[in-house]
Amino acid sequence: MTSSILKASFYTFGCRLNQAETALISSKFRSDGYDIVPIEEKTDVCVINSCTVTEQADAKCRQLIRKILRNNPDAYVAVVGCYSQTGWQSLQKIDGIDLIVGTAEKLNVLEHIGGDPVKGVETRLVRPSILKTPFTIEADSTNIPTTRANLKIQDGCNFMCSFCIIPFARGRARSRAFWDIQREAISLVESGYQELVITGVNIGTYEYEGQSFLDVIKMLLSIEGLKRLRISSIEPTTIPVELIDIMAESEVLCSHFHIPLQSGSDKILEKMKRLYNQSKYLEFLDLARAKIPDLLLATDIIVGFPGEEEEDFAESCRILEDYMAYAHVFPYSERQGTASQRLVEKSDSQIKKKRSKRLQEISQEKKQEFYQRFIGKTVRVLTEEKDRSGRWVGFSDNYIKVAIADNSLSANQLIKVQIESVEKNMAIGSVALEEK
Ligand code: SF4
Predict the structure, then answer these.
(1) Are residues 72 and 89 located together in one domain of the fold?
(2) Alpha-carbon distance 19 to 151, whole Å?
(3) Which ligand 1 atom minimizes the distance to the CA of 170?
(4) Assigned domain for 137 exists
(5) CATH of the domain at 41
(6) Would the pLDDT of 1 be above 90?
(7) pLDDT for 177-223, tens place per residue?
(8) What is the 181 CA–ligand 1 centroid distance (Å)?
(9) pLDDT band at 143 (very low <50, low <70, confident <90, very high)
(10) Is 385 found in the same domain as 366?
(11) Which atom of ligand 1 is nearest to the CA of 165?
(12) Whether residue 31 has pLDDT greater than 60
């Protein structure tokens, strides 16, 4: 390829951790002199950060790769991440992919492409074993134009839930060096990020030279200039109870917990090999709700797990109704090599469809209900971007999506907003008083 400034585009499937990693990868490309362009544009290099959490995720990834190869036939195409790790054989069958990089080397995809990406020679596979040792990350995502920065603190998981392919795709649990998290966090705050979101596969299991997840939280909260710290999805059995008091008292730590439930039924939880039962799960929620005013609780629920009867499903519905502001709903997807694939009972696609729809309806109602509770109240919003009608949109500390029609605003402003009304998935407000 000959153009003097090379262009690169990125596409991320899946979780927040993947987003964090794409930010790190694209940051490296930017530092290397690449011009970063949207995925729809003609580009020299295209990097797809893949996901394999469900069959549908695999299919969507293959679909996008084919579209890119059709629309941008001269682009050097690299596929990295979880699907590259577990489904590399399927990817190798797609003609035109130049590079497949598994989990261990995904952040080094630029180095594997090399200085002068040459399209169409062969499909190269880089898939060394995933180490179990602590890690550091050379890059940081300070030059990514977003207002919230995802901060990766951990990777992999040792829990082996029976439905989950992630331990195969991302390997065993390992933690990022404590000092390296601190280094990137300080650099992010110094370069203007007001909100950091802690990410990883199983962040509550963080452990590095005697430092725990709680120590990471305390260290981040002590960083001068950090206005907001958010915890992304965290496994129920790994949340330190002390966190509740810290969250209740801190203005920086957001009142927001996303705690995967997966099923409300003890019978199904056992088959899923989850490490808690319903009452243990709810015990924590009750405690958190009692101490943290305005707390937003959200969750992930799988529907149609093999053997899930109506009464099991009803338990999931009940917990969503009684506790949550919303749920991410996943129809059960059988993944090769997982323990649940070997279960004799099989899941029924019609039932999965019906139950997904029902849970999504409840989730929608619950979100509406939660948002409505804040009409007339003042919340703190970090402005992110404009929506199609030109309103500034951002999230409150407790993750309410708020739109404000005010042309004097700009991105990355932390402002007080009075909530006036609620439309679908959005609260509408006006500026109350700007934070100093
Ligand atoms: S805790 Fe369970 S669901 Fe979450 S990544 Fe680990 S094995 Fe998968």
Answers:
(1) yes
(2) 10
(3) 5
(4) no
(5) 3.40.50.12160
(6) no
(7) 999 999 999 999 999 999 999 999 999 999 999 999 999 999 999 99
(8) 23
(9) low
(10) no
(11) 8
(12) yes
Q: What is the total count of domains within the chain?
A: 3
- Determine which residue's CA is closest to atom 8 belonging to ligand 1: 164
Which of 158, 202, 305, when mutated, tests ligand 1's pocket best, judged by the most ligand atoms within 8 Å of its CB?
202
Best of 52, 160, 163, 164 to mutate for ligand 1, by most ligand atoms within 8 A of CB? 164
Q: Which residue type, as a one-letter code, is found at position 248?
A: A
Do 357 and 260 belong together in one domain? yes
Tell me how many helices (H) and strands (E) the chain has. Answer: 13, 21
* Domain containing residue 158: 148-372
DSSP state of 280: H
Give the orientation angle of helix 349-372 with respect to helix 310-323, to 10 degrees.
10
Q: How far is the CA of 201 from the centre of ligand 1 (A)?
A: 7
The binding-site residues of ligand 1, defined as CB within 6 angstroms of any ligand atom, are 157, 159-161, 164, 166-167, 201-202, 235
Amino acid at 86: T
* Final residue before a domain boundary, out of 126, 157, 187: 126
pLDDT at residue 345, as a whole number: 87
Average confidence score pLDDT of the chain: 94
How far apart are the CA of 418 and the centre of ligand 1, in A? Answer: 38
Which of 115, 132, 109, 128 is closest to 12 using CA atoms?
Answer: 109
SS3 for 48?
strand
Quote the pLDDT of residue 436.
45
Dist. CA 325–CA 308, nearest whole Å: 24
Task: Determine, yes or no, domain membership for 19.
Answer: yes
Query: CATH number, domain at 245?
Result: 3.80.30.20
Cα(159) to ligand 1 centroid in Å equals 6
383-425 pLDDT tens trace: 999 999 999 999 999 999 999 999 999 999 999 999 999 998 9
Mean pLDDT value across residues 89-94? 96
**Does some domain include residue 312?**
yes
Query: Which of 412, 407, 301 has the alpha carbon at shortest distance from 359?
Result: 301
Percentage of the chain beyond pLDDT 70 is 97
Q: Give me the CATH number covering residue 410.
A: 2.40.50.140
Ligand 1 centre and the CA of 410: distance in Å? 38
Q: Looking at residues 332-354, what average pLDDT do you find? A: 91
């709700």: which residue's tokens?
A: 289
Domain presence at residue 132: no
Average pLDDT over residues 323-339: 95
Longest dimension (CA), the chain: 63
